[in-house]
Predict the 3D structure of the following.
Amino acid sequence: MADQTIQYQTGFAPVIAPYAEGLLGAAQAASSQPYQSYQDWAKKYGLSGDQVAAFNPLQQQSFAQAQGLGGAGANYSQTALQGLQGLSGQTFGQQQAQQYMSPYVQSVIEMQQRDAQRQADVAGTQQQAQATQAGAFGGSRDAIMRAERDRNLALQKGDIQATGLQNAYNSAQQQFNADQAKGLQGYSLLGQQGQAALGLQNQLGGMQQQQAQNLINVGQQNYAAEQNYPYKQMGFMSDIIRGAPLTQTGSSVYNAAPSALNTAAGMLTAGAGALGAYNQYTNPTKQAKGGAIKSKKPQGGLPQLLINSMG
């Protein structure tokens, strides 16, 4: 009976084989290209190759001005803090009143008192003239009227003194409060300027730090891209191969059975070989010094020969 062998072969379908082979060739050529960095590409076309934009002149000028401030921001803030602390501890008292009251207040008061005295003297003269005409000058009635006039004059002068001092005190307090408000406003503005200077320096410093970090990040990304490039190319080629449309074909191979003549010839050949081996085994001779030595005849005949030949 004939034997059958089935052989399978995987490959491209004939209709797409030229295109698939062309695709694989192009993919292999692409994946074999050496790694090219952005800097190399930019240099080829006359570009700078910078991957992080540099600071422009206006930004660099701002950096220089911020650096020129030095410790001004901290100094402004410290001065403002000390000034505000000093103002918060001040209250209006006798010392502040004397400091803010006009030095001419007493002169003004005395002038008003002299004017009151003059008016009182004029009124006294008129009263005495009226008493003389009535014949009552020097009497008890005249004395009562003069005492009342003197008392009123003293009260008037006292009121002038008290009112003048009170008005001067109020004016001094208002001026003190106004100065306090100006001081608070000024120190607050100074503190804001100090904080603004510190904020500007911190902001520009942060920009410079971010710029340095960007350069580090780009360097790390470039390094990682170069290290991963071979694996990326391998993945690219693997995807192309896995995506190629392959087909599987099979073929059968038949082995013809041997004919009767071939079988008989094989059996005769095997029998002749066995007979020759038997004769050699039953009549062996060994050459040695002094002549031939007959070996011991084996027992068992042809069956034993077959067993020995198999062993």
Remarks:
- The first helix runs from residue 17 to 31.
